[in-house]
């Protein structure tokens, strides 16, 4: 058995990567809107409007550099769907309507509830 670190393998693996410089552009990218909201850090944004224009829209625009079309998908809970049933069993919890000027009451940062 050989002793070493996983990082030692990185150099060997990089030699086998395909050259992406000649990769063809994709026709469309499908993105999960809720996942993107959770993924992106709000940074210094104080309101939802600031987050939407400086963080979220910037990310979407960066994705447009790779394609001509982006489909942004959001969850929909139809009354007769399995998702709706699971959500109802989980409970509703506290809801907060987020408007363009919504700020968190605790920290002054944006809140995604």
End-to-end separation: 50 Å
For the CA atoms, what is the radius of gyration? Answer: 21 Å
State the total count of DSSP E strands: 2
Mean pLDDT: 79
**What is the element string, with H for helices and E for strands?**
HEHHEH
Short summary of the structure?
Helix content is 33%, strand content 7%. The chain is mainly alpha-helical and 113 residues long.
Descriptive report:
The structure is a single chain. This protein has 113 residues and is mainly alpha-helical. It has a domain at 25-101. The chain contains 4 helices and 2 strands; from the N terminus they run αβααβα. The protein has helices at residues 10-14, 33-39, 48-63, 82-90, and strands at 29-32, 70-73. It has a two-stranded parallel ribbon with strand order 1-2. The longest helix has 16 residues, at 48-63. It starts with 9 loop residues before the first helix and ends in a 23-residue tail after the last helix. The relative contact order is 0.16.
List keywords for this structure.
113 residues, mainly alpha
List the SSEs and their pairings.
Layout: H1 10-14, E1 29-32, H2 33-39, H3 48-63, E2 70-73, H4 82-90
Parallel strand pairs: 1-2
């Amino acid at each position: 058995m050989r002793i070493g670190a996983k990082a030692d393998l990185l150099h060997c693996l990089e030699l086998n990567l395909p050259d992406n410089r000649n990769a063809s552009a994709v026709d469309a990218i499908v993105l999960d809107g809720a996942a993107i909201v959770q993924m992106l850090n709000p940074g210094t944004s104080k309101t939802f409007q600031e987050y939407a224009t400086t963080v979220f829209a910037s990310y979407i625009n960066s994705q447009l550099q790779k394609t001509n079309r982006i489909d942004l998908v959001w969850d929909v809970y139809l009354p007769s769907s399995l998702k709706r049933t699971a959500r109802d069993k989980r409970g509703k919890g506290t809801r907060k309507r987020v408007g363009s000027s919504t700020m968190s009451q605790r920290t002054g940062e944006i809140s995604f509830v």
